[in-house]
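User: Now give one protein:

AI:
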Amino acid sequence: MQNLVEKRKQIEKFRQSSSLSPMHAELLGQSIHSSWQRSRTAEIPQGRSAAPMLPVAKQAPNALQQALTHCAEDLKHIAQQSSMVVAVGDVGSTIIWTASSQQMQSAAESVHFMEGGQWKEELVGTNALALSLKTQQSSCVFSNEHYMASIHDWVCYAAPIIDPYSKQILGVIDLSTTWKNHNSLGLLAAERCASIIQSALQEQYKQQLYIRAFSASQVLFNGKVLVMTPRQIEILTILALCPQGMTLDTLHQALYGERKVSIGTLKAEMSQLRDVLGGMLGSRPYRILANVEADFLLAEQALDAGYTESALKLCSGVFLAKTESPFLCAWRDCLESRLSDAIFKANETDVLLRHVARFPEAIDAVERLIELMPKQHPIHQTLLKQKLYGSS
């Protein structure tokens, strides 16, 4: 206990420092140090004591929410037994599910550590839930390492929840209690809870189809890569974007447009595709009978929710770069337009810098960074040259 008191005093000294030195980074840990720097430059209202709340909208449950219904009792038991509050956040750090012990319930409610609470770093500062998503690793934030004073009495352990098949991060789980109950096994407990959810995901993914359409396109069925032609991947992508199903004529128009390809050719394609999928392809209308997930659907959902960073991570290349399908080309144009619009509204320079590092030709991100970065910053001149080079 004495060690924890000393730790709090040491952290408080760092907090009072006008600038954070490399020594601070070493003693605090690089991830906390970086988070403090980001929090200090974010426009977080002074005296904010609770996370902003997002109205809980009624919508079809996603894979993570469905998995939670299967393991909720296990997670509730862990919360009760450990005197903690357990929360699951989505990829944008908004809490979508919680279970709390009696000891933590009122404290959790008072700071909006509950369903609908938005725990983005730029809204509430340093916290384990957002930090784990930012670093894509397990995170512990102790006491006054938190930015908001209202949670200085807390210690939080968080771990990312990773899709067992696509390996994409679907969200994060956070276990929180009072700092006096800090335990070095807390991170292991968070990772164990993440694995409980991942097991539930694996169980519900029987008859699961996953489509990758950015960079190298690929289709996984029940976790195994299928050998497919580019045309078959195009068909599945169209059907994934139209879950209500399509008639043969509509699908033909979406796939081929004005190209002179017979209906019989498409019928033969559909027959072969049904064989590859073990019969999981319905007809009249044509539709995928398996559970469908896809990187482009996740990207669309991220943009719908305003999660620019998550959308940029998912868009790891050009969507079906070689497709000639008029439907898919139009959808790609729409996605790229929405992504560009989100980039011009983004304020997180670190997110945009990472995007430009991966895609130097992303002139929209370069232009937004030029607007955001101070003119005296060394990167500013580099960006101006990049813009000049990219537009020439």
